[in-house]
Amino acid sequence: MDSVKKKEIIEKYKQSENDTGSVQVQVALLSERINHLTEHLKANKQDNHSRRGLFQMVGKRKGLLLYLKDRDINAYRELIKSLGIREIK
Q: Which of 2, 46, 56, 81 has a Cα at 20 to 30 A from 31?
């Protein structure tokens, strides 16, 4: 992910002026990296090292989403809707 794309995502999901680390921003950045890596793995099916990294990112995103769901259910629902990801059970 290039720095321009990263800045666009931060601008879209930030909660305050200097926000770069809120849960919403972290989940959005992880989702972008997950989507990029998923496309890579479609072309490179034998790349098991990257597949492990993908699973780690998905797990981290799940943990952040569960945290957000416990703290602010409305922000959680809005975030998963805007990112187009499934609800965490």
A: 46
Domain enclosing residue 50, as ranges: 3-83
Residue 20 makes CB contacts below 8 A (sequence gap 6+) with 10, 14
Q: Domain with 9 in it: what CATH number?
A: 1.10.287.10
The span from the CA of 49 to the CA of 67, in Å, is 28
Integer distance in angstroms from the first to the last C-alpha of the chain? 29
Question: What's the predicted TM-score (pTM) here?
Answer: 0.92
- Assess if residue 15 is contained within a domain: yes
Handedness of CA 5, 78, 22, 34 (dihedral sign): negative
For residue range 29-88, what is the model confidence (pLDDT) as tens digits?
Answer: 999 999 999 999 999 999 999 999 999 999 999 999 999 999 999 999 999 999 999 998
